[in-house]
């Protein structure tokens, strides 16, 4: 193809306008990098563990509703409760009048993520928690936790998903798995202005806290939590962004969510 001078001018202008748009992203615009994508979601099946609450909770079930053979269309119904599988907890899970899951602002569901690794101490003590000291050690190494982040605890519990130690019931039916201390949650809310927190275990309160005291602190501040998060050992400790695909169910207290990390 023979280029005439007019075409060269047009192409040059197009190049500069693209270049300027690109540069504009550096001046306060937010850029989402998609070079790496990791699914932080476990596949939900009828084997997935859950917090056993007598006469209340039950496993997930996929129940065929229509089949291609009989109906010409395939569809299932789900037997599920809101806190099963990789899921989000909305503030109204424990606090009356607080946000339901459909009311959480979208800007609060696409946020930077940091991962605090307590695998070593959790391997020694199943009741371990993320403490102020852990946050201090993390920040000394990786820098201050950015405002409006999700702070995740990585305890290595995912490796136990298919055995009974994931729930960790003892002979008195008390649960044992790690979580966040109340001091850490208070600090992250007041001093780091976080968007939410997350864990690779069933609940962000340690299993032994049957009053869910950390949930009440976090939800009173209108923030969310994500639980049973997968693959936290496969994303960087800082620098990634998570997209929390929370269900938009009116009035719900949470629900199964697709959580994706990108950087
Ligand atoms: Zn929950």
What does this structure look like?
This protein is an alpha/beta fold. The protein is built from six helices and 13 strands. The strands form three sheets. Strands 1-13-11-5-7-9-10-4-12 form a nine-stranded mixed beta sheet. A two-stranded antiparallel sheet has the order 2-3. A two-stranded parallel sheet has the order 6-8. Strand 9, helix 6 (213-220) and strand 10 form a beta-alpha-beta unit. Helix 5 packs parallel to helix 6 (213-220). The longest helix has 20 residues, at 5-24. The radius of gyration is 22 Å and the shape is globular. The two termini are 40 Å apart. Mean pLDDT is 92; it is low at 8-24.
- Helix/strand class: alpha/beta
Give the amount of beta strand, in percent.
15-25%
CATH top level class name of the largest domain: Alpha Beta
Order of helices and strands: HEEHEEEHEHEEHEHEEEE
How does the overall form come out from the CA principal axes? globular
List the bound ligands: zinc ion
**How is the main sheet built?**
9 strands, mixed
Please give the domain count: 2
Number of β-strand runs: 13
Q: What low-confidence regions span 5 or more consecutive residues with pLDDT below 50? A: 8-24
Number of helices: 6
């Amino acid at each position: 193809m023979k280029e005439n001078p007019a075409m060269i001018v047009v192409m040059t202008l197009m190049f500069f306008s693209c270049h300027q748009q690109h540069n504009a992203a550096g001046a306060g615009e937010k850029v989402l990098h998609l070079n790496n994508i990791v699914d932080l979601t476990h596949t939900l099946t009828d084997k997935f563990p859950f917090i056993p609450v007598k006469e209340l909770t039950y496993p997930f079930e996929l129940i065929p509703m229509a089949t291609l053979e009989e109906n010409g269309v395939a569809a299932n119904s789900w037997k599920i409760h809101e806190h099963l599988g990789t899921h989000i907890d909305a503030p109204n899970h424990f606090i009356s009048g607080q946000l339901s899951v459909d009311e959480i602002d979208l800007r609060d569901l696409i946020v930077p993520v940091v991962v605090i690794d307590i695998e070593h101490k959790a391997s020694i003590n199943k009741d371990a928690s993320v403490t102020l000291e852990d946050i201090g050690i993390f920040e000394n190494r990786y820098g201050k936790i950015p405002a409006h982040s999700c702070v995740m605890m990585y305890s290595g519990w995912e490796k136990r998903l298919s055995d009974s130690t994931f729930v960790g019931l003892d002979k008195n039916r008390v649960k044992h798995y790690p979580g966040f201390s109340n001091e850490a949650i208070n600090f992250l809310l007041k001093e780091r202005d976080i968007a939410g927190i997350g864990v690779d275990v069933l609940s962000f309160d340690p299993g032994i806290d049957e009053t869910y005291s950390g949930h009440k602190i976090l939800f009173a501040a209108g923030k969310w939590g994500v639980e049973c998060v997968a693959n936290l050992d496969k994303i960087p400790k800082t620098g990634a962004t998570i997209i929390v695909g929370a269900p938009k169910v009116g009035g719900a207290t949470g629900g199964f969510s697709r959580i994706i990390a990108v950087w």
